[in-house]
Write a structure and sequence with these properties.
The protein is α+β, with helices and mostly antiparallel strands and 469 residues long. The chain folds into four domains: 88 residues, Uridine Diphospho-n-acetylenolpyruvylglucosamine Reductase, domain 2 (2-Layer Sandwich), CATH 3.30.43; 107 residues, 2-Layer Sandwich (Uridine Diphospho-n-acetylenolpyruvylglucosamine Reductase, domain 3); 110 residues, Alpha-Beta Plaits (2-Layer Sandwich); 97 residues, 2-Layer Sandwich (Alpha-Beta Plaits). A hairpin with a 5-residue loop joins strand 14 and strand 15. Helix 1 runs antiparallel to helix 3 and helix 13 runs antiparallel to helix 14. It is globular. Bound molecules: flavin-adenine dinucleotide. Flavin-adenine dinucleotide binds next to strand 3, helix 5, strand 8 and helix 12.
Length: 469
């Protein structure tokens, strides 16, 4: 984008009020980056709209004066989608965080885009309902960011992704037009449903300013089972067996290295003394003695097969929470190693093959580096984390990891998998989008963007690979 020729800060102060515009160095540093910490933040200013109309005013100002905007939520994103490193204006949704009264008849709640995910879960729970999208960053991420990334998390196997819980959206497009999409309706077959274009669009089409979310009944007596497993193949065999026994809420996996890191650095207790190559954390609805007995039988059968080596089951909510920490504390714990992260997927049946191919690539290139695997394996979703050796400079480490990205993504492509399972494309995956989407799909995506954002002011440099000259 061309550099703006006017005093942008002054114009933004006129479009909003001067106290809604921040240019101090702490704000620029804080709001210019997401969780990835890979780019050096360098936004021009941060603005804090208080209403949908404020967002319209910012968009119109940007169109008139030719500057770029970066939609910003809780900045827990792991793909560099909310990064502002090139003099953009960051549009923070922090002041749009209202959570409306839960509508128990419709089983829905309408919230501002800046509402923290956990505050929505809490509001639902106060009236005996449940908002099921959940992950380790729920205490900081915002619903606008969740919708813009179509966030997944730990309950996808039972409840699906964020997309499945959005009944309505208010958006401001890159033209400055306000659209009320689907209006909370359960049934509305009136042609193309633009709501679904905005879900997962990573801020390239417009700003989500408000959302109506569906709610459901909470699961009964959610119980956690942690199993120590012999090998990767066992994870799938156990999934097949357990899935036919109980209604699963989650099926997560992690490696022994992941466990040893959270035990050492997050003070989490081991599930049992036995160390096994992999672990599965299973959450299920334990709503009758019959289910519990059937599950015990299934685990016993898996032990006889040699797939399960040890097991523990929570007896109360406190124990369930403690076991969940084995999985939920991994990402935060690994941050100290500035890990090279990759969030990839395949069909559930192809997961062992995907893990073995990618693991082989990584070990061939970096035989002595620590590689931590974990993920939402019941959804076919693996998180690869290569830990930076202490002595290695961050820039050198990133460059060396980048060298194998191509090989990793080739392996994924061969299996028909995805280079981004749930974290989005952002800046980090943009060069690799072509491993999952075809040329014509990417061209169609560009054409759709140009309808909603004709001046290209929204989140430039995100999602799309650079065009070949
Ligand atoms: C410890 C940890 C665990 C995590 N676990 C998971 C997990 O299990 N599953 C999962 O899916 N993700 C996970 N994440 C990633 C992250 O929390 C999600 O991607 C989340 O949805 C991002 O929300 P956010 O509000 O922080 O968005 P941000 O990081 O602020 O932004 C993400 C993207 O959305 C755009 N955006 C933000 N708000 C808006 C808006 N109002 N309108 C339009 N565009 C907008 C931004 O421009 C950016 O492209 C995890 C992250 C951490 C740090």
């Amino acid at each position: 984008m061309a550099q703006p020729s006017i005093d942008v800060i002054q114009e933004l102060g006129k479009a909003l009020t001067p106290d809604q515009v921040a240019t101090d160095s702490l704000s620029l540093e804080t709001y210019g980056q997401d969780w990835t910490r890979f780019a050096t933040p360098a936004p021009l200013a941060i603005v804090f709209p208080r209403s949908t109309e404020d967002v319209v005013a910012v968009v119109l100002c940007a169109r008139t004066h030719g500057f770029a905007l970066v939609p910003s939520g809780g900045r827990t994103g792991l793909s560099g989608g909310a990064v502002a490193a090139n003099g953009e204006v960051v549009v923070s949704m922090d002041k749009l965080k209202a959570v409306g009264a839960v509508n128990v008849t419709d089983r829905s709640v309408t919230v501002g885009a800046g509402a923290i995910t956990q505050s929505i879960q809490d509001a639902a729970s106060q009236v005996g309902l449940f908002y099921p999208v959940d992950f380790a960053s729920s205490g900081s991420s915002q619903i606008g960011g969740n919708i813009a990334t179509n966030a997944g998390g730990i309950n996808v196997i039972r409840y699906g992704m964020t997309r499945d819980w959005v009944a309505g959206l208010t958006v401001v497009t890159g033209k400055g037009e306000v659209m009320a999409l689907n209006k909370g309706l359960m049934k509305n077959n009136t042609g193309l449903d633009f709501r679904h274009l905005f879900i997962g669009s990573e801020g390239i089409l417009g700003f989500i300013t408000e959302a109506t979310l569906k709610l459901t009944a909470p699961p009964k007596n959610a119980t956690v089972l942690v199993l120590g497993l012999s090998d990767m193949d066992a994870i799938m065999r156990v999934l097949e067996r357990i899935q036919s026994t109980a209604s699963l809420l989650a099926y997560e996996f992690f490696s022994e290295l992941a466990v040893s890191k959270v035990v050492e650095h997050a003070g989490v207790a081991r599930p049992f003394d036995t160390q096994t190559p992999f672990y599965a954390l299973i959450e299920f609805e334990n709503d009758s003695e019959r289910i519990e007995a059937a599950l015990f039988d299934a685990v016993e059968a898996c032990m006889e097969e040699g797939w399960v080596i040890d097991a523990v089951m929570s007896q109360n909510v406190g124990q369930a929470r403690a076991l969940w920490r084995l999985r939920e504390d991994i990402s935060e714990t690994l941050t100290r190693w500035t890990p090279y992260k990759n969030d990839i997927s395949a069909t559930v049946g192809n997961v062992p093959e995907l893990l073995s191919r990618v693991d082989a690539v990584v070990h061939q290139h970096y035989p002595s580096w620590e590689v931590v695997w974990y993920g939402h394996i019941g959804d076919g979703n693996l998180h690869l984390n290569i830990l930076k050796p202490e002595a290695l400079d961050v820039a050198v480490f990133k460059a060396r990891c980048g060298e194998v990205s191509k090989e990793i993504f080739e392996a994924i492509q061969l299996l028909g998998g995805s280079v981004s399972a749930e974290h989005g494309v952002g800046t980090l995956k943009a060069p690799y989008l072509g491993y999952t989407k075809t040329e014509s799909e990417i061209e169609a995506m560009r054409a759709i963007k140009s309808i909603f954002d004709p001046d290209g002011i929204l989140n430039p440099g995100k999602v799309f690979p650079l065009k070949q000259a």
